[in-house]
Structures are given as C-alpha cells and as structure tokens.
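User: Can you predict the 3D structure for this chain?
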Amino acid sequence: MQILKISGLIVVVLLTACSNVQPIQQDQPILLAKGNGLAAVVMNTEDPLTEVFVKPAASGGTTMEIPSVPVGRTIYLFEVKAGNYCLQQFHFGQIEFFGQGADVECFVVPEGQLGYSGDLMPRVNNRQVFIHQDYDFESFRALLHRDYPKVAAQFAPQAPSASTTVEPSAQTPVPGLPVKAEKPRCNLQTCMWFEDVTGGQSQAIYIQNKTQRTIRITTLQLYDCVNIKQTCSTTKVNIRLPAHTSRQVLVVDPADPAGAYAYYVRYLYVFDLSAGKHQF
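Assistant: Here is the predicted structure, written as structure tokens:
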C-alpha cells in the first residue's frame, strides 16, 4: 500500500472496514445511556465528501461515521461516550485523508449534555488540505432548531468557548491597591474575566476551570482589534488547568497608551483525559 504525506496529512486509497456509529436520523427525545453525551457535528463544505470519520482522542470512545456529506452546512447528531473527539479522516474524490497530531480539529462531548463540534470546514486546494473550525453558536442553535426541533428543546447547548468585547477601564490603577475585576463570562464548565494590571493600562485575562476534571486551553484568539500591542491573531497554546483552579492566560496592552483600545477574545479547550477520569 502506497502512502503519501501531504501537509501533515497521510493520503491513502484503502479504507479499512470497522464498526462505527451512524448519525441519528429521527428527531425525537433522546434518553442517553450513563456515561454518554450527544455529539452535534456540523460539516460546512464547498465540495462533496464521503467516508467522514470523527474519532475519539483517546481509547474507549466511539467513532462517528458520516457516509456522505453534501456541499453546504449540515448537522449530524450522534450518541457517543463522553470525551474528546477529532475530525481525523475523510474522502475527497478518490483520495482519503488522515489527520495527525495538531492537524486535526477537536471538541468536547460532556456526559449527559450536547457537545457542538464547531463548524468543521475541510478544504482541499492544490492537493493541500486545510481544516478550519469556527464556533458560530447563534447560527448553530438556529440550525439545530430547524433540523431537530425536539432535540433542541431537550438539550440546551452551551458554548465551549467564550467571546466578549473588552474596552479599557476608566479606573486609574494605583500601585499597591486591588485592581478592578470585570464580571466573569461563564459557560457550564469555565469562566473568563479581565483585571486591570496594577500601575498601567494593560488588562490581564483569566480563565477558571469549574469542573472536576483537568482541562487544557488549546487556542487563544484575539480578533477585531483596535490599538493593541499584541498580534491580532489565533495562537495555539497548551495551558493546563486542574479542577477548580484559575490562571492568568494572557496580558493585553494598548499600542498607544493615550488612545482607547478594544478587542474580542475567544478560547477553546479540551478535557485532559490523561490526567485521570473524574465525574462532573
């Protein structure tokens, strides 16, 4: 069997048969088995794909199989074991692509809850493979309500990332005195908040892990930035947060201290299954 590596992916023309779970077809209330969650996989493609596989990041999970994906934005629901899952394999024409390591996009399926994959957007251009992952939660809710209204009524999806607009504080920091802390922005599993840095106009960004399992922050994104010193971009990180702990993850500084500044920030995280198995 001939194998060719292309941009961190392996291209193979042979598919090994195995037992996988197929998407849920009917819109009806779902009684999840103990230890399971509901995965909502959204494929957003410009080309038809076949044999799409979303696989567990660690052993013991459930492999999700989508036989064919049409052009456009389509949602697929699966009952799977709770854990981390990654888009690792799909067919484009006669070529099969396998993702490796940092080249795959992953998401969390919590026990007893719905886990949104983000919009997974595989692209093939000049034999180069690009897989983007974008969290558009409002659009996702609308898609879920449109295609699975009964499931949408049963599960209230929670964003696995946080987004907020930050404006510089009107407070003048005084050395030696407590700084102002912004109100935390929280989902079911994490919180993010901002604190003015003492003695300057910078802001420190903190993230708290509210669960009983270790999580890893994998991505920090600054976007729609105005007058900030840091690069307005997406950065891959590996920040470990044990259960019920908080940590400063970034400090944002104004490029021109005399001017106003603003930005959006988003973070993505996964559960660190290597740290042991715990219950929520």
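The chain has two domains: 4-154, 162-275. Residues 52 and 90 are 4 Å apart (CA to CA).
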